[in-house]
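Sample pair:
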Amino acid sequence: MNSTTHGRPLAVAAKARMTAWRQAHFTAQPGQVPFSFLLDGRPASQAMVSWVVVDSGEDHEPGRTRRTLTWRDPATGLQVRCVVVEYEDYPTVEWTVFLRHDGAADSPVIEGLQAVDARLDVAPIDGGVRLHHGRGGYAEASAYQPLVTQLQPGDAPGFAAAGGRPTNQELPYFALEGDGEGIVAVIGWPGQWSAQWQCAEAGAVHFRAGQEHTRFRLHPGEEVRTPLVVLQFWHGGDRIEAQNVWRRWMKAYGMPKPGNQLPAPRVFGSSYRVYAEMTRATEANQKAFLDRYREEGMSLDYWWMDAGWYPCGGSWGQVGTWEVDRERFPNGLRAVSDYAHAQGIGTMLWFEPERVSAGSWLATEHPEWVIGGAEGGLLNLGLPAAREWLTDHVDRLLTREGIDIYRQDFNMDPLEYWRRHDSPDRQGLTENHHVTGYLLYWDELRRRHPDMLLDTCASGGRRNDLETLRRAVPLWRTDYQYEPAGMQCQTYGISFWMPFHGGGNLADSKAAYGEPGYTAVEPYAFWSTCYPSINCGIDMTVPEVDYAALKELYAQRRQMIQLLYGDYYPLTPYSLEQDAWMAWQFDDPQSGIGLVQAFRRAASTQAEYRLPLRGLDPDVRYALRTIDGKPLGHAHGHQLAQPGLLVRLDEQPGAAVILYQVEAQA
């Protein structure tokens, strides 16, 4: 790798900027800390001046240093604890603030608790700064669309989650860009967050973010926390190179590692279309579908068992009775798991534990655990008894039924339940305790099943905040699936922030979602729906499908899929239009191997597109070939950068997947 942005001088400069910022803000002086709240209407920083301060000193862990600052009010017993983590190999700092009340009576009123409330400075660009952000993972083609807002002095745009699910509307991932430098700023909160970026002057922005609404008194012994905040500084180069530092940090510190390894690229199979209901599933037909994959030579890593395996009266949405439907599965799901395991295939099982339907076991037997009671609603994970029951019950199910991957969905907006449950002097606490309980639930599942991968769904992609992604991966990144242009655009946008994600894979661009019976196999549709993790969307009941062509595409995928963990470079503008081209590059700088994916859409009149590649050593010669093995010659890195790689696609629509690697020196 010859990019100066990832070279030592600029990395040292970015690290120095981060360290200087951290040293200025995390001190025993409460007026300098980068968080805030009001205490009985008075800024807490003023009250904390007279409190007792304890600095834990530095606690060294592999790759990072942890430090805890604690302020305690001797008069009331209120305690503020800030846990700060600095990373050794990255220009990155993160923190979380905890408030605990150890007094004999309720605490003073705590209001407007902000996880971050601080000034960020960068060199001005175009008289202000650029704020890069993105749309959430909702069920539209524009999910994960990258956006940029130019901030001029006086501008103060605000952003927020919608309905209590953190990526339902906006992504809580931001990049502040100045002239040759900037700061990535990320909020980790699986609930209702809000953020404001106030541009005070050119190059100076005040960043405030936290749980959207808080005003409460803490009871004796009660504790709450703020969202996680991560800042990553860059200096020199451009934002795209800075985003790749973020991707590398995510792989090192922001993703789960079951079995101490990053999640491997996967292929899932399912009985109908990817999101088909299991309400028609039986032990016999699940085994029959597994047989069909084997008969056609379709290699699977996991068998995907989705919603409806429990007693639900034929409607998968009737949730809250988490037992196997013994009428359809008299031997339990274990019979299917054992059958899959005998073929070297794992199993994944769907749950939606937080939503509770009226008439279900939870609503009937424990209405006191449900916000909404016997009529159904939200299982309150802020209640230790509810969380502990759920943990033990799901743990037993996973173990007894031989499940290898836990999949959690969340098809409701919890915000109205949280806020309706709060009394006037306890606003925000139901949400805060629920979020904390949700994270504790997942942490305990991971402790009991250290080799198990967890999947986060939430109506497809609506809970992909950083705290969630440290524990799980989004194997179903949005409920908008299969349509090629939309899938290309989602990959384009999500790849800035999330190195691992998944969705439904389809080989016919004309087949509508949920309509079986097609037989065509098109490389354009296949590569448009090719992600690190895919669920085969083929209807295996159709014998006329060209399975030989499909298997060849899957074999080609195996050649390139690991490269999707590499550095990411968009090569064309973002566009949903059918007359556009879209292309990107993934590069592994350690091995000198990479790939280019390019798509010519159906209405494009342009048969050729020149793509300036990035991240290559200008003086090294690279060998290029198509994914099906056709040699494309050789070129030096500087030629592939300028004028760039020329891609020609005569098919309309058409797709190209081109691999390159450093040519061995004689």
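Residues 1-7 have pLDDT under 50 and may be disordered.
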